[in-house]
Amino acid sequence: MAMSSWFSRLRCSSKCFFNSLALRTSVSRKLVRTQTTTNSESTRNPFLFWSRSLLPIALAVSAGSLALHPQSDPSLCEASSVNSRAEFVVKGSHKEVPRELIDELKAICQVNMTLDYEERYNHGKPQNSFHKAVNIPDVVVFPRSEEQVSKIVKSCDKHKVPIVPYGGATSLEGHTLSPNGGVCIDMSLMNRVKALHVEDMDVVVEPGVGWMELNEYVEPYGLFFPLDPGPGATIGGMCATRCSGSLAVRYGTMRDNVISLKVVLANGDVVKTASRARKSAAGYDLTRLVIGSEGTLGVITEVTLRLQKIPQYSVVAVCNFPTVKDAADVAIATMLSGIQVSRVELLDEVQIRAINIANGKSLPETPTLMFEFIGTEAYSREQTLIVKKIASEHNGSDFVFAEDPETKKELWKMRKEALWACFAMEPNFEAMISDVCVPLSCLAELISRSKQELDASELICTVIAHAGDGNFHTVILFDPNNEEHRQEAQRLNHFMVHTALSMEGTCTGEHGVGTGKMKYLEQELGMEALKTMKRIKAALDPNNTMNPGKLIPSHVCF
């Protein structure tokens, strides 16, 4: 095992910066195990798990100026309300929720609903996001079953009252805002693991199950779920936003890891999108239609997920570079070499500085690549040596690797908490986060051009990239009380998005559209694609009650 002083610097002090953050607060909640199938045996035992973080990891990119008015006829449209001057409050219209609907919801949910202002405010205006809306939900309900969800949705559709599904509240683009008021459906009480099929390597869960809790649940069986977005994210929300994470370079995104869904449509009907077979050519692919629909087509009530075997062995490697372009070039060369890495993460020198400040470390403040190799012990080490050679050919230095479990865990903890480390540099600032993704061959140029723009700005900006699949984020810190700061952050975000689109990339690799990215969709997808989406929306949700004002720009007509 190759060790160096680089890794010795990773050891946290007894009072780690992150342990002092109130944001680390969590609460215990129930995750109920109802069925586990191993070979031909079935067992039924209640099981408790600690659950998702109480507070969201939600730092958002601006929504711009978007008018979000419910439409009685979805084929009608409004003039585009996006203008060049950024506004950060999502507009909407509001009508009073009928008393009859309140009574119906109370009959369905009993005590699991609230009209309390503070609760409604917390659900309508996420604390750690500068996405805001002019209104908050009128009611928050907490269904416990698919049947209750169906009744809730049916009642809302009858009264033409908007619905906003709500998961772990970690989404970054205003997905859970309620600009038109209405009913917020919090899925947190639907958090059971319904069935685990060990031999088939799949699991059936309710949408309120967190991915971290799920992995604790399946680990004793030698299995894991490979997507790893922000802490606190739940499976339902992960499906809705088509998220991914650092392991997507090997295991794919949510689209690739969901076998089937059960979804409550706008009229209350419950649809099962597919069987449990690993592949099927039967009919339209409704599963992938719903994944990424962000609650605009239905409410997800059950998810069947693919699981993977926990790797036999892994090696984590770190290498420093003089520029981010050199680091990106190595990521591209590694992928072209045919090596099947499980992670390739890039952090620029500003991000490393933030980690040093936050944790009292002394890591080299240069652009850094982090790799993970998995397989047998011999294969993992062989991959490591091949990548070490590739790095040396692109100005890489200080290539070190770790096999010790605690050191590897500390490395990925550092990466996972990189976002919060940024606030050690400016504790009173907010963050705007980009999420562009381009074809892999364009990544080095995109990062290099973006980095020049970021470094020239007066704002503090860090780069964090899933370099193996062309997806990178920037954390742009700005003073929320300084309008020039806010406009500069928006300008930088626009620059990166438009540069990515010019390279046949996308405005969002994994965070989703919500309200924040709608203004870029026409340029990326074209008006005909947006019209097709709106036709689908109108067919499934004719009263436009399902999370209205999200995903599809209001000016799209058909």
From TrEMBL:
E.C. no: 1.1.2.4
Cofactor(s) it depends on: FAD
The name this protein goes by in its record: D-lactate dehydrogenase (cytochrome)
Domain FAD-binding PCMH-type as annotated: residue spans: 133-310
Family the entry assigns: Belongs to the FAD-binding oxidoreductase/transferase type 4 family.
Enzyme class: oxidoreductase
Xref: InterPro entries: FAD-bd_oxidored_4_C, FAD-bd_PCMH, FAD-bd_PCMH-like_sf, FAD-bd_PCMH_sub2, FAD-linked_Oxase-like_C, Oxid_FAD_bind_N, Vanillyl_alc_oxidase_C-sub2
Keywords, ordered alphabetically: FAD, Flavoprotein, Mitochondrion, Oxidoreductase, Transit peptide
The keyword Mitochondrion appears for this protein: yes
